[in-house]
Design a protein that fits this description.
Elements (H helix, E strand, L loop, with lengths): L1 H29 L5 H19 L1 H10 L5 H20 L6 H16 L5 H35 L4 H32 L11 E3 L2 E3 L1 H20 L1 H10 L5 H17 L3 H9 L12 H17 L6 H31 L11 E2 L2 H6 L2 H7 L6 E2 L2 H10 L4 H11 L4 E2 L2 H7 L2 H4 L1 H8 L5 E2 L2 H11 L13 H17 L2 H8 L5
């Protein structure tokens, strides 16, 4: 049954491969420096490696945008995004898979009445403007450096041709790896909350459950590259701006660098260690990056006179239509799945000012929320509306939402032994979890509070930039704890009914 639900994610992966392979090898094939078959083989191998090895960086931010907690909802959200992308690919437009999945997730948030994480949404949307600009700047600079170098070094045309061919292949490999690392979040990120896979040991290598999920998505992307990417490759490689082989090399390098810097946790750690503020790890649009790079080349070569602005306008219109279309389609499909086909698309998340919540609320807020103490609200939207009626300030609303959310978590030591990967969590953290055996918690923050008391390994460090990576990794571990030990998940997966 789970494969039926996963099929929409696989379809989205296929659509991504069909659409976004053009961004990696489109210019190389368009300039006839590489054959499509060669590009497809290398692209497929390295997009899978990128997804498995480095895919978790950007997935974390996307996951905060929408807490999709039912596999039926994940299926529908991915289906809406995949349908939008494949429709655009059929029109020959290199649209953004990132925009499609973001639009679909926002559609899910609106349908379920969930809270939209505006901070994560702002981060992602800002890259829709920043990534093509950054790619254009990279392309402009790299092209001028290359031109300056070739003017001063005498190299035979045949040697330049061979170097360019090899360079396009190597940079395409880097681009495919970066595509898998950055965009696998778009394909399988919505299934992280209902991941059916377990960790997998491959001799000297161990893949955790998320990596296995991402590997499956990577294979779907590879299939899309092989079967349906040629038409979009033609649009990018030949129609937007006529590129020389050397210019094509620069375009792919600029676009690959943009994808890499928005996905690399290693780069983030390095920048933090040097005291440099890193860019956010978010899924960015490879389509937007490559178009930005091509425009940058066009400006570097002649002030942009050779750019096909009619084609560029058509592509940009597609970028605006994509999130809007996928969001509307997602909302409509969720309605039909929930009300016509009777398939659960979300697990209701209730909110209440319980005794525990009231006790932890600052005294300055207690009097204001006293009238709704003990009242249960069906979703975040209803709770926020009530807080607004009570005159609660906007900055306090987010705080109260995090405190009042009811998640119902039950800790079981046998489940901890079976489900928590010791290579990731470490022995001390798992032992601390086991010490809470038999305890029931109403709110997530109570679990954090108790585990922090038991072991320093479960304590978040200060908000100083140096601890940003550590805190994010610990947040991922807590998210796994909340998922594994949620009452609903235990009842569904382990057939245990805690009293």
């Amino acid at each position: 049954m789970i494969w039926i639900f996963l099929s929409s994610g696989l379809f989205l992966g296929w659509s991504l491969g069909a659409n976004d392979a053009a961004n990696i090898f489109g210019t190389a094939i368009g300039t006839k420096m590489l054959r499509f078959r060669t590009a497809a083989i290398f692209g497929s191998i390295f997009v899978i490696l990128g997804a498995v090895i480095s895919g978790s960086g950007a997935a974390h931010t996307l996951g905060k945008l929408g807490d999709i907690n039912a596999v039926g909802g994940a299926f529908t959200v991915a289906l809406a995004a995949g349908a939008t992308v494949s429709w655009m690919a059929k029109l020959g437009l290199p649209v953004s898979t990132t925009q499609a999945i973001v639009g679909s997730i926002v559609g899910w948030d609106l349908f379920t009445g969930s809270q939209i994480d505006t901070v994560s949404l702002t981060k992602i949307v800002s890259t829709w403007f920043f990534s093509p600009l950054l790619a254009g700047i990279f392309a402009f600079i790299l092209f001028n450096i290359l031109k300056f170098y070739l003017k001063r070094v005498k190299i035979h045309l045949l040697q330049i041709d061979n170097f360019t061919r090899i360079g396009l292949l190597l940079i395409g490999i880097f681009g495919a790896y970066s595509l898998g690392a950055n965009n696998i979040a778009n394909v399988m990120g919505v299934f992280m909350g209902s991941n059916p896979f377990k960790g997998l040991s491959l001799g000297f290598f161990y893949l955790n459950d998320i990596q296995v999920l991402f590997m499956v998505g990577g294979f779907a992307i590879a299939l899309g590259i092989f079967t349906y990417s040629y038409k979009v490759i033609t649009t990018v490689g030949r129609e937007l701006h006529k590129l020389s082989p050397l210019a094509a090399l620069v375009v792919v390098l600029a676009e690959s660098l943009v994808l890499f810097i928005f996905a690399s946790q290693s780069l983030e750690r390095f920048l933090v260690s040097m005291g440099i503020p890193p860019l956010p790890l978010v899924p960015v649009s490879s389509s937007q990056a490559v178009v930005g790079a091509i425009v940058g080349i066009g400006i570097a070569r002649g002030g942009g006179r050779a750019i096909n602005f009619k084609k560029l306008y058509k592509i940009v219109v597609g970028w605006f239509l994509t999130p809007l279309s996928s969001g509307i389609l997602s909302f409509i499909l969720l309605f039909f799945m929930q009300n016509v086909f009777q398939i659960s698309t979300y697990k209701p998340i209730k909110y209440s000012i319980t005794e525990y919540t009231y006790r932890d609320v600052p005294s300055t807020l207690r009097q204001a929320i006293e009238p709704i103490k003990g009242e249960v609200f069906a979703n975040a939207r209803e709770f926020k509306e009530k807080l607004s009626e009570l005159g609660i300030k906007k900055e306090d609303t987010g705080y109260l939402l995090s405190l009042a959310r009811i998640d119902s978590i039950y800790i079981d030591s046998m489940i901890a032994k079976r489900e928590l990967d010791q290579k990731w969590f470490g022995k001390k953290r798992i032992e601390a979890v086991k010490k809470l055996h038999g305890r029931m918690f109403v709110h997530k923050w109570q679990v954090v509070e108790e585990l922090s008391k038991i072991s320093d390994e479960w304590k978040f460090r200060s908000s100083d930039r140096r601890y940003r990576v550590y805190n994010r990794e610990l947040k991922k571990m807590y998210d796994t704890i909340f998922h594994v030990f949620s009452i609903q998940n235990i009842r569904e997966k382990f057939k245990i009914s805690p009293e």
